[in-house]
Amino acid sequence: MASIMRPLDGVLLFDKPLGLSSNIALQKVRRLFQAEKAGHTGTLDPLATGLLPICFGEATKFTSSLLEADKTYCALIRLGQTTATGDAEGEITSTCAVELDEAEVRSVLCKFIGVIQQIPPMHSALKHQGKPLYEYIRKGETVIRASRSVVIHELALERLAGNEMEVTVRCSKGTYVRTLAEDIGSALGCGAHLQGLRRTAIGRFGLKGGAHNLAQMESVTMLEREAYILPLDSLLRDLPVLDLDAAQVTRIAQGQRLVIDTAMLDGNVRLYGAGRFIGVANLVEQRLTPVRLLSSVAKNAACVA
User: Which candidate, 237, 281, 233, 292, places its Cα nearest to that of 259?
Assistant: First the structure.
């Protein structure tokens, strides 16, 4: 008998296990919560583990802040060996003896901090003419990819032991850590590939901030499981708050602009009515325009109209 799916709003900090694609992980979590609607923010490859925020219901409307946020990873890099895919899944394409000291490695890592250029790998979901690049490479075709700018905010050596090193990477969206590992190996003169990857943070959300894995969630009751869900406005905590009265809530929900007498705020704001989150609006020169509102707010306004 099929489970009855139900409306559910909020955000779950999910610790994705090894071997699952982001989409399969999403569907497993969605079924656990019997949620009608869910989406993830920021794909992780099957060989990567770590933080994969799952947004339920109305929270899926407010994921842009996470998609745009910086990401932090713990990367395990295998030195002296390159592969066809840039990671441990690919066929080995070259090997080289590794004779590096820590000072030499740290010196090279420093050169990758800041704005750098990356060429997206063929084994990626980046699309060309409507198709992911990995579909071309499966057919033996190679597509010319333009390099693009990404930002490496932090690149710290955590461990160096023989032909393995572990680094912490904090980077902008769109960064391919697999490509970064290959480029570091090239700069060191020995080649390298990404052996393991764990995402530890997205923006201000981290694994240590209350992330949960499948085993934890499967071992508790639904009521206990629901306590893991963060309120949907937790995605927007970086935005300033603007409280509206009942009449203003109705008008903004009907798509009207409001004149707000404040010089303290400018740009996107979190909107609340009677202490309840209702959505996001843009405030410019004291004129407030709705950007994205909860469906329930719009429905209530329609009933009033």
Answer: 281
Handedness of CA 15, 18, 19, 21 (dihedral sign): positive
With respect to residue 163, please indicate whether it lies within any of the assigned structural domains: yes
- Dihedral over alpha carbons 295, 301, 302, 305 (to 10 degrees): -170
Q: Which of 9, 15, 45, 233 is catalytic?
A: 45
Q: Which residue segment(s) compose the domain that 118 sits in? A: 71-202
Cβ distance 145 to 119 under 8 Å?
A: yes
Residue 69 backbone dihedrals phi, psi, to 5 degrees:
-75, 160
Active site residue 101: no
Specify if 3 maps to a domain.
no
Give the single-character DSSP code of 130: T
pTM recorded for the entire structure: 0.89
Tell me the percentage of the chain whose pLDDT exceeds 70.
89
Give domain status of residue 146, yes or no: yes
User: Is 22 inside any structural domain?
Assistant: yes
Provide the pLDDT for residue 1.
Answer: 41
Over the stretch 126-135, which tens digit does the pLDDT of each residue have?
A: 665 666 666 6
CA dihedral 180, 186, 191, 193 (to 10 degrees): 10
Please state the domain count of the chain: 3
